Amino acid sequence: MKCIRYSAVLSLLGLSLSLTALAKSPQPRLPAITLDVAGVAVEAEVADQPETRRIGMMFRTEMAENEGMLFVMDEPGPASFWMKNTLIPLSIAYINQTGMILEIYEMQANDETAIQSRFSTIFYALEMPGGWFQRQGIKPGSRISGLPPIP
Predict the structure, then answer these.
(1) Is 115 exposed, middle or buried (0-12, 13-18, 19+ CB in 10 A)?
(2) What one-character DSSP code corresponds to residue 120?
(3) Per the structure, how many domains does the chain have?
(4) How many CB atoms lie within 10 A of CB 45?
(5) What are phi and psi of 8, to 5 degrees?
């Protein structure tokens, strides 16, 4: 009986260590789509499942200038993002159903302060390298085309 308990404890310990290691590495690259962000072509990985949205850009160490991650919400509502375990600064745009950018924020690496949207009609969020929207002259009111349909 002791042998079975010992084996079970070792199995649980191994699973726990595996999950801990997994939680400290970036998720594999997600399928990407091309978006037109106010006239600028962007390759955006699509995070449209709870787990891919939860992990997002965590533990990634680089991001190309015109690459991003698009978060597709299950339903419209307020959005809130933070930078826990995110090693590079990002810019985030909160977007409504029609593809209009409603809000843009700068987010600092490893900052666990939640960036809450002011609007409650957020369908998408697009994370880009820090300062990207400003460098492109993109502001709230700009439009994005090529967005996937809401599930």
Answers:
(1) middle
(2) S
(3) 1
(4) 20
(5) -65, -45
CB 95 within 8 A of CB 101: yes
Structural domain containing residue 92: 26-145
* 30 or 1, which is more confident: 30
Average pLDDT, the chain: 88
Q: Is residue 21 part of a domain?
A: no
What CATH number did the domain enclosing 38 receive?
2.60.120.1140
Chain mean position to CA 65: 16
pLDDT (tens digit per residue) in 100-135: 999 999 999 999 999 999 999 999 999 999 999 999
Which CA distances in Å does 54 have to 10, 49, 51, 75, 80?
28, 8, 5, 16, 11
Give the integer Cα–Cα distance in Å for 1 and 72: 49
Residue 79 has pLDDT above 50, yes or no: yes
* Residue 11 placed within a domain: no
Residue 17 domain-assigned (yes or no)? no
User: What predicted TM-score, i.e. pTM, was given to this entire model?
Assistant: 0.84
Burial category of 15 from C-beta neighbours within 10 Å (exposed 0-12, middle 13-18, buried 19 and up): exposed
Is 87 part of any domain? Answer: yes
